[in-house]
Amino acid sequence: MLVVCDYLNGVVEMPDERSYEICFRWPQPRCHADVIDTIVDPDEVRIDSQVVYGDGHVLIGKIYLFCRWFDEINDGSHVVAAICEGGLHEYRYINSFHTKELTTGERRWSR
Q1: How confident is the model at residue 57 (pLDDT cuts 50, 70, 90)?
Q2: What is the DSSP string of the chain?
Q3: Contact status, residue 105 vs residue 3, Cβ threshold 8 Å
Q4: CB under 8 Å to 109, separation ≥6 — which residues?
């Protein structure tokens, strides 16, 4: 799946296995749509230089963290979608999570 992202002036590639993973981990009915909405229309964009996966692997490089608040998730929570920069206008979705507080990354843009 390809998601158009105005902030990045490009397209974010969301591989099928990542789409299935979102729906498997998050039982909410709109889980996949919430992540896509976060990429398309974020409240805030942050930059991080390192993301550690749950299996211990570390990805180093420019990681965009797209953040959006949803009142209906866990009595209010941010959805954060991590996007890796792969080249000129090439971006790939790598992970997403819920959080009550944004603490990771440096804020680059906010609504």
Answers
A1: low
A2: -EEEETTTTEEEE--HHHHHHHHHH--STTHHHHHHHHHHS-SEEEEEEEEE-TTS-EEEEEEEEEEEEETTSTTSEEEEEEEEEEETTEEEEEEEEEESS--SSEEEEE-
A3: no
A4: 7, 44, 45
The listed range with the strongest mean pLDDT (45-49, 60-64, 106-110) is 106-110
Q: What is the pTM of this model?
A: 0.83
Single-letter amino acid code for the residue at 1: M
- Residue keyed to tokens 């963290």: 65
The predicted structure's pLDDT at residue 97 = 87
